[in-house]
């Protein structure tokens, strides 16, 4: 159990803690640091850990979880662990082996949630970002409905308690929801979501289908130029957010995390700074007023930090749709 008991029910009956710890790291951070910060996050009360094969740190994150189980801090069932199926493994026959590889790296028997990381199939192989001689991504043509059927089998086999998607637009979600013979709906869609990109249309769509929206990039972004649109202002320096934070005697980061929780969004807080990790768990200690919520809603400008421009030419590139 989350110490604050703050969990929401997924459409398959499992529960997800509304605050998660994001483990994606900047390139300059040594992989071993994932071990330290994940252990620390569990010590201060995080029970939902979000990771992925493509982060290349599942071994360390798994080690952190196991060490906190071994020392009695938590039991395995207290932890909600998410992994993600990378784009080079979207062919149905590659799905289960990819999950089994993650489980082997983690030394865990199951993940709580396994999600399709991105709807863009890429050429299978060892390369995470297969490119041609012109530096263009080499796509693969895979029907995502077939990928989904393979995820359903992983759930049936007990390798994943719940299954979902990430970075899908509403049309891509609809394709799965309308699939003939659908056995399980996606429990979530994990997408970039923050006051500058509040995803209100996608959120309404997901709510109408009992799909939880999980927010990444909720604090804006680490300014990593390969991934991030650096022309956008720094979210946490926004004057409206700073004023609301000051009023509540909280940090702007806590205000944006709280904003998501109050609108029914599960939110990931990514930080490799212990002081901030400890601070982020305090999101349950205060409440924003309806006026605060409205003011934050007013900041939306439909701007992404994470545009994944490398995938723009791909037929399944998700961000060309309005939502």
Description of the structure:
By secondary structure, the protein is of the alpha/beta class. The protein has a single domain, classed as NADP-dependent oxidoreductase domain (TIM Barrel, Alpha-Beta Barrel). The protein is 33% helix and 15% strand. It has helices at 33-44, 58-70, 92-106, 144-156, 170-177, 200-208, 239-248, 252-262, 274-280, 290-297; strands spanning 7-9, 15-17, 19-22, 48-50, 80-85, 111-116, 160-166, 188-192, 212-216, 266-270. The strands form two sheets. It has an eight-stranded parallel β-barrel, surrounded by four helices. The chain has a two-stranded antiparallel sheet with strand order 1-2. α5 links the parallel β7 (160-166) and β8 (188-192). The longest helix has 15 residues, at 92-106. The model has no long low-confidence stretch (mean pLDDT 93).
